[in-house]
């Protein structure tokens, strides 16, 4: 049945019926996309998880919120019934991809970008609503192909919702891949052409092996060097070529080689009065 | 496989992150000289254009971002406006042989005709030396060098990172902005921006 849906969409898409939204997987170049729901119904007054399911052709990938040295993050624009609201994408921990000396962050194979949708309390139980999204992505191997699809899902409103077994595993994996917010402190400092981040603690089980900046234009995308100094892990990045000012909050995703990553805020220390001093205690 | 990934990550972590190969040209400093062959078989150097403003544009005709700015007429118009004003516009292809967008001389000429483009010259950098010298990472990736040979702008073609032509109308086009400011003797208001596009297809 799923296969015939794919065929139908592909067939329709071939005839350029733009503006149609698909309540089924859409096959595009090197990727299949679908708007899916964790539960088979929505409950008034509760949040629900929807997700953009991405099935990449092996070897191809799409991008994280910070795509790295090239690429573009996947973008969603929602068309929702009155009173419904969509949060930003709850980005799962991405992978680092290397192409020569260029670095990117993103997703490959089967991935799901979850989005929390708030359902208004006054939504009528027994009715059915349609949630629509326009998804735009860039899928790359070494070469890249931009894609766009209008997707929709029809869901009933009910007093209780049960998980849709078709997507339970995909949502479970996407939730498990959510980075935990670290309660620990970190401090970033700009020292010449480097950015150093000292971690008091990390909430990771092991010392970090890599770190990805959630923002662009702060640090270069190459992996940082990681050293132990005075009982702290110190990550040293090259400053981004496009650094203009230190952001108020600098969010870093810390990885330890396990599936669980930690998101830590590393605010910048005030710039020293005379810049470019590189000797530090 | 995850073990392999971990090992790779560790190996990279031990390597210096300040890649010497990407010790890019710096805004405010002298733009490094280079010598490349163009689509007419002529040698082109940066130093031969001393006294003129020079734009460098990294190009890969197979890249959808480059196609956005060519098929919409955006880059061809910028080239025509700039060169009419006496600016030298050098389009550079650092794609290695066998990679997407790598062109021979005939291919480059056909590309220029197809889009009614008007760069001063289309240069080949198949070994990526000049791309690395300038730290070119994406196509497009733009550089503006003033008449004194100082690099004044490094960055993206415009302010909205997308492959969608619909975004062009809302975007700030940085090169015409910088060229106008240089012409009027004004300070350059945007000296760097983050470039977006395809990775430059360097050889390994």
Architecture overview:
- The complex is a heterodimer of chains A (281) and B (204).
- Chain A has 281 residues and is mainly β.
- Chain A has two domains: 2-176, Immunoglobulin-like, CATH 2.60.40.1250; 180-265, Immunoglobulin-like, CATH 2.60.40.
- Chain A has helices spanning 2-14, 168-176; strands at residues 26-28, 31-37, 47-56, 61-68, 75-79, 85-89, 95-99, 102-108, 110-118, 128-140, 144-156, 180-181, 186-191, 194-199, 210-213, 225-229, 232-238, 251-255, 262-265.
- The longest helix of chain A is centred in the first third of the chain and has 13 residues, at 2-14.
- Chain A is globular and about 60 Å long.
- Residues 1-19 and 275-281 of chain A have low confidence and may be disordered.
- Chain B has a single domain, classed as Glutaredoxin (3-Layer(aba) Sandwich), CATH 3.40.30.
- Chain B is 28% helix and 17% strand.
- Chain B has six helices and nine strands.
- Mean pLDDT of chain B is 89; it is low at 1-23.
- At the A-B interface, β7, β10, β11 and β17 of A face α1 and β9 of B.
How many structurally independent domains of chain A?
A: 2
Q: From the structure provided, what is the oligomeric state, counting identical versus distinct chains?
A: heterodimer
Number of helices of chain B: 6
| Cα-atom radius of gyration of chain A | 21 Å
CATH class label of chain B: Alpha Beta
User: What is the helix/strand order of chain B?
Assistant: HEEEHHEHEHEEEHE
How many beta-strand segments of chain B?
A: 9
Based on helices, strands and strand pairing, what is the structural class of chain B? alpha+beta
Strand content of chain A: 35-45%
What would you call the shape of chain A? globular
Global structural class of chain A = mainly beta
Shape of chain B: globular
Q: How many helical elements of chain A?
A: 2
How far apart lie the N and C ends of chain B?
A: 23 Å
DSSP strand count of chain A: 19
- Radius of gyration of chain B, CA atoms, in whole angstroms: 17 Å
Looking at the structure, the CATH topology of the largest domain in chain A is Immunoglobulin-like
Strand adjacency order, main sheet of chain A: 1-2-3-9-6
Strand order of the largest sheet of chain B: 2-1-5-4-3-7-8
